[in-house]
Amino acid sequence: MKKTNFLIGFFVLSIGFFSCSLKQKNSNLNAEKCECTLNSTANDSVSLEQQELDYFYSLMAYAVVYKDWQNNAMEKSSRGYNIGSVLVDNDKYVVNWARNSVNSTMNGTQHGEVRLMQSYLDSMQSFSLKGFSIYSTLEPCAMCAGMMKLTEVYRTVYGQTDPAYGKALERLQLESGSCCTNGYSSYPRPVISDKSPDPLSLEIDSTYTQYKGKYIVNFLTTPEAEKLFKKASEMFQQYNKAKYVENQKYIDSAHKFYNFVVTPIK
């Protein structure tokens, strides 16, 4: 009996010691996580002229999507999701556009940004997008962010914030090697990631916070979302006079380019 009591006591003490040790280990791990740094790629010196183009091109991305608005996100009855983007070259001209087409292609990789990059590289027989910028209606996911890095995209400007799949470029820039035993250096080829300065993007964010559904792609088929995309499209089409004279040629060119954006066959 004494031997049994001794073994039980030893077992209890062992559990207590292990628990304290585990708590201490986890505490150290949390401290390590707090010390990890973000190799920031944010650009704090965007010129006023560039801010105007960011505003204008972000509106254009919304307009491209609205031109082929999907009333649902069902696989068998839609192109895909109401997400799209435009590509701007290193001379600041729009050179390509694309929309999400995961349903019509039955291919879950066919996000707007992926299609944007692949189609341009294929058409130009080019290896990279060094110096190019992408304006997307929704914050890029990890897949699109990874392709942006591999193709050397310079910068992306996104409209709506994605609480679930966003901050992918920032996560790829996380540097944990200096503080964690098994940490990593930040991923090569940093891409600047900026929130669009246009007020519609903030309004879409605000409207989405009030949405009671589960998925962001379903929100993007609601009448509320459609109304905001329509508003952005109208703002883009009415934006004909540049605030800064050096931007007028880019604005004129973008409007001409937009006329060639494909509309669906009804």
TrEMBL record:
Residues 64-179 form the CMP/dCMP-type deaminase domain. It holds the Pfam family dCMP_cyt_deam_1. It comes from the Bacteria. The keyword rRNA processing does not apply. PROSITE patterns: CYT_DCMP_DEAMINASES_1 (PS00903), CYT_DCMP_DEAMINASES_2 (PS51747), PROKAR_LIPOPROTEIN (PS51257). Keywords: Metal-binding, Zinc. CDD domains: nucleoside_deaminase. InterPro entries: APOBEC/CMP_deaminase_Zn-bd, CMP_dCMP_dom, Cytidine_deaminase-like. This is CMP/dCMP-type deaminase domain-containing protein. It comes from Litoribaculum gwangyangense.
